[in-house]
Amino acid sequence: MDDFSTMDNGGVLAMLMGFGLVVFVILLAVYLFYGFCYGKMFEKAGKPMWAGFVPIYNLVVWLEIIGRPWWWVLVILGVSFVPFIGTIAVLALMILFGIDTARSFGKDTAFGVLFALLSFIFLPILAFSSDIKYVGPRASGLGAPPLEG
Predict the structure, then answer these.
(1) Treating both helix axes as pointing N-terminal to C-terminal, what angle do 9-44 and 119-128 enclose, rounded to 10 degrees?
(2) Which among 132, 140, 112 has a CA at the least distance from the CA of 43?
(3) Displacement of CA 98 from its chain's centroid (Å)
(4) In angstroms, rounded to a whole number, what is the distance separating the alpha carbons of residues 84 and 105?
(5) For the chain, what is the HEC assignment?
(6) What pLDDT sits at residue 143?
(7) Is the pLDDT of residue 40 over 90?
(8) Is there a contact between 124 and 89 (Cβ–Cβ < 8 Å)?
(9) So where are the chain's domains?
(10) Residue partners of 147: CB distance under 8 A and separation at least 6
(11) What is the pLDDT of residue 2?
(12) Residue 72 pLDDT > 90
């Protein structure tokens, strides 16, 4: 009868370490995927690709590209610590930034909402499509410059 109750501590530890390694490899792959995609998007906007891999700084560069001031990073970090309401607020901000990103690359609002909600699909489309070009910052609302044309 092989079950976990008869497994020695070394076997349990080995199993947990193996699981941790698998999780680490998956998270590293996701980090590299998003960093590379954001880096390619940044390159289209004339920013360095390496900025896509630097936490927090990549958010500052993204906000600069879409035309929002840097202090929005503080807003995102601040509301993210509020239980439940913070999650909803961050989701709303990501949708807002997705729409601003879509407009900054000449796409419509629907693309922006999908960019925010399904970033693992729409971020690579934006980053690697040769048809999508950066047209300049197009943010609207609090702390953003007015839209041109």
Answers:
(1) 40
(2) 132
(3) 10
(4) 32
(5) CCCHHHCCHHHHHHHHHHHHHHHHHHHHHHHHHHHHHHHHHHHHCCCCHHHHHCCCHHHHHHHHHHCCCCCHHHHHHHHCCCCCHHHHHHHHHHHHHHHHHHHHCCCCHHHHHHHHHCHHHHHHHHHHCCCCCCCCCCCCCCCCCCCCC
(6) 52
(7) yes
(8) no
(9) 4-128
(10) 138, 140
(11) 55
(12) yes
Q: What does R_g of the chain's alpha carbons equal in angstroms?
A: 20
Taking the C-alpha atoms of residue 3 and residue 56, their distance in angstroms, rounded to an integer, is: 45
Q: Average of pLDDT values for 72-94?
A: 91
- Report residue 3's pLDDT band, with 50, 70 and 90 as the boundaries: low
- In this predicted structure, what is the pLDDT of residue 108? 93
Token representation of residue 106 = 């000449």
Helix axes 119-128, 109-117, angle to 10 degrees: 120
- Smallest Cα–Cα separation from 97: which of 72, 74, 122? 72
For the entire predicted model, the pTM comes to: 0.81
Instruction: Please report where in the chains the tokens 């040769």 appear, as a residue.
Output: 130
Torsion of CA 88, 142, 115, 105, to 10 degrees: 180
Check if the beta carbon of residue 94 is closer than 8 Å to that of residue 133. Answer: no
